[in-house]
Specification:
The chain is an alpha/beta fold and 293 residues long. It folds into two domains: 147 residues, Rossmann fold (3-Layer(aba) Sandwich); 94 residues. The strands form three sheets. It has a five-stranded parallel beta sheet, with helices on both faces. A two-stranded antiparallel sheet has the order 3-4. Strands 6-7 form a two-stranded antiparallel sheet. Strand 6 and strand 7 form a beta hairpin. Helix 10 packs across helix 12, helix 11 packs across helix 12 and helix 11 crosses helix 14. The radius of gyration is 23 Å and the shape is elongated.
């Protein structure tokens, strides 16, 4: 699907929100507008927010609504060009040279080139969406390399020349804001901050993603999670954990465990840090009872 086709699909923020909902992702007006503008303006979309608010899921949903493959570049400390752009398969090159004998062989043929995420997207920009996940985990040198890539959407391979994207790729970057990103990168993007949803929206998300969960259970989970996130936790639960908690408690309840005991016993799918569990345990019963009331 070319960029023009993507523009036709992204006719309006409302159309995007509706298509995302069909992919089981609820986007509010501001997020749908940011996605709309990124596609229409041909700019990367930078999504920031706490871990677990749905940044990566948003990128997956965008790829699905456009009918494209999602190519994910997971960033980490020390990531370099070889992991992001391309590298040569030296072992295969050496084997090919040994078996070639006196025959000439092009060791820089495509069969020896290992395409990493950025090159994969350049080769088929109308079929793929690039997700640069947790860019804040990389260092400044890699961020500068990525900025250069986003400027021209091309890669120079000394042995092969320059590879340019035939059409402008759709790129989504996410950041947990563990460090500040360069202003040059921010200026190049459409920016959107994703926060935790309110209780009503989170209940909608739970019901959308956990079809076996009753509406009353979804609302109770959403209310309880709002209260739990307000505590000084090392790792506040994300939306996915809230969905898992609702699912787990429902499974226990169907197996004969009564409320609110089902919520208490399933807490391990919501809180995944020992110190947080210790801190929340004394008040968990009251939180759940109030949420169920």
């Amino acid at each position: 699907m070319a960029l023009t086709d993507a523009v036709e699909i992204a006719a309006s923020p409302e159309a995007i929100a509706a298509r995302l909902a069909a992919s089981r992702y609820l986007a509010d007006e501001s997020l749908a507008t940011a996605i709309f503008l990124a596609i229409r303006l041909g700019k990367p979309l930078l999504l920031e927010g706490a871990p677990g608010v749905g940044k990566t899921e948003a990128a997956k949903a965008v790829a699905e609504l456009l009918g494209r493959e999602l190519v994910r570049l997971q960033c980490y400390e020390g990531i370099d060009a070889a992991h992001a752009l391309y590298e040569w398969n030296y072992q295969r090159q050496l084997l090919a040279i040994r078996h070639a004998g006196e025959h000439e062989i092009d060791i820089y043929d495509d069969r020896f080139l290992i395409a990493r995420p950025l090159l994969q997207v350049l080769r088929a920009p109308d079929q793929r969406v690039l997700l640069v996940d947790e860019i804040d985990r990389s260092d400044h040198e890699f961020e500068a390399l990525l900025l250069e890539f986003l400027s021209d959407f091309q890669i120079s391979i000394p042995e092969r020349g320059t590879i340019r994207a035939a059409t402008q790729p759709i790129v989504i970057l996410t950041s947990n804001r563990t460090r500040e990103l360069a202003e040059a990168l921010r200026r190049r993007c459409v920016y959107h901050w994703i926060g935790y949803p309110d209780a009503a929206r989170e209940a909608e998300i739970i019901m959308l993603r956990a079809s076996d969960v009753a509406e009353a259970t979804a609302r109770a989970v959403a209310n309880a999670v709002q209260e739990i996130r307000a505590r000084p936790l090392a790792k506040p639960p994300g939306i996915a954990e809230a969905v898992e908690w609702a699912n787990a408690a429902t499974i226990l309840e169907k197996g004969g465990c009564q409320w609110p005991e089902a919520f208490r016993r399933a807490i391990g799918v919501l809180i995944k840090d020992e110190e947080d569990l210790t801190a929340i345990a004394p008040g968990l019963g009251k939180i759940v009872e109030e949420a169920l009331a």
